[in-house]
Amino acid sequence: MSQERFWILLTRKIAGEASPEDLTELERLMQQHPEWQFASQNLEDIWNSKPPVDHTEEEDAYLLHMHRMQEKNIPFGKPILPEEEAAVSELSSHSSRKRLRWVIAGLTAAASMAALLFFNPFSRKQDASTGALSNVNEISTRLGSKTRIQLPDGSVVWLNAGSKLTYDKDYNHEDRQVTLTGEGFFDVIKNPAKPFLVHTSNIDVRVLGTVFNVKAYPEDKTTETSLIRGSLEVSIKSRPLDKIILASNEKLVVENKKDTLVKGWEPVGEMDQPLMTLNQLKRNSRDSTINEMQWTENKLVFDNEPFEDIAVKMGRWFAVDIEITDWSLRQKRLTGTFERESVEQALEGLAYASTTPFIFKRSGNKIIIHR
Questions:
Q1: With contact defined as beta carbons under 8 Å apart, do 352 and 178 qualify?
Q2: 256 near 222, Cβ under 8 Å?
Q3: Least confident residue range of 127-131, 295-299, 353-357
Q4: 220 and 232 in contact (C-beta within 8 Å)?
Q5: Could you tell me whether strands 176-187 and 164-168 are parallel, antiparallel, or unpaired per DSSP bridges?
Q6: How confident is the model at residue 197 (pLDDT cuts 50, 70, 90)?
Q7: Which are the contacts of 254, defined by CB distance < 8 A and separation ≥ 6?
Q8: From-to residues of CATH 3.55.50.30 in the chain
Q9: Can you give the pTM of this predicted structure?
């Protein structure tokens, strides 16, 4: 029954016809069933991708909502109150009512497919040896998308594009442990009796209650931990005896691969330990916001970074594959901030600002950049 109710409430929300009570009930159901958040995100993506829909009013409402949150000093990660949702829905009520006639039919069909995909017990991961249903919740984001997750203890995680978060079904019973692949921004509820642990392929992060960002994409050169507020302890898996304590506004960067020692031009061996650096967080010169937080506000920020690293970030952000053919261009350092631009507009902006001219050509999801 709760599954059917979930789809009804979600349909009302997307149609812009949900009451404050509906939104409160929907939020409660998604807290009770965190695995449904991914189904919700995918269904909303399906709806938002329909060509007849004009998203201008909805995007304006979202930006206005973020501005209101800042004006009211609502802490990041605090669940949005129903009246806040109602204020946003009111702005787009005209367009939502105009399309309501075919919203219900379209969402009913989409919901049916999504329900089969996400709620069929046979679609869940099974243990290879026993065939038993998995005891792990897994939430992931596709390239070009982001999502917000509220964990059973009230802690909130924002997942960046191409990321995955997993945690046990008994999370918060005895401890609070999650595993991250990709990038996540965490606002953790304080509970000294149950420390919060984030596991990645190269590091483990232990906190009691704090706000921080972890970027741990396996294909990246480094794993980064940025502490916004509070304190935390980082353990590097290849250096189990070392514990690094971060203070507020500090950032730890750990090399993902061991560096090769070179004598002359000949490699002579590998370094036993990965390189790591501890720096102060940088703030945007325009509004003093921390760079590592910008992506949670739909801002893509580069601060004096190599073009080859920027290309990887843009690939995830815009769900494209970017290749730079010129070696010197790959090493070129660039700076920029983009909010609502397309990938073409962002590249044009970088080309305009760069002292090294370049051109690009797009074919489908593939973009080639050369001088």
A1: no
A2: yes
A3: 127-131
A4: no
A5: antiparallel
A6: very high
A7: 202, 203, 222, 223, 224, 236, 274, 275, 276
A8: 299-370
A9: 0.64
CATH 2.60.120.1440 in the chain, residues? 125-283
- The answer to whether residues 300 and 292 touch, using CB atoms and an 8 Å cutoff, is no
Single out the residue of 29, 364, 321, 319 nearest to residue 145, CA to CA.
319
Pairing label, strands 366-370, 321-324? parallel
According to CATH, the topology of domain 299-370 is: Phage tail protein beta-alpha-beta fold (3.55.50)
> pLDDT tens for residues 163-185?
999 999 999 988 999 999 999 99
CA 187 to chain centre: 13
Backbone angles phi, psi at 61, to 5 degrees: -65, -40
CB 204 within 8 A of CB 213: no
Q: What is the CATH number that goes with domain 125-283?
A: 2.60.120.1440
d(CA 365, CA 322): 8
Instruction: Take residue 138 and report the two structure tokens written for it.
Output: 């897994």
Segment 90-128, tens digit of pLDDT: 333 344 444 444 444 455 455 544 444 444 333 334 333
More confident residue, 20 or 286: 20
For residues 3 and 119, give the distance between their C-alpha atoms in angstroms, rounded to a whole number: 8
User: Are 336 and 299 in contact, with CB atoms under 8 Å apart?
Assistant: no
In sequence order, which residues have a C-beta less than 8 Å from that of residue 265 and are 6 or more positions away?
none
Q: Distance from CA of residue 360 to its chain's centroid?
A: 27
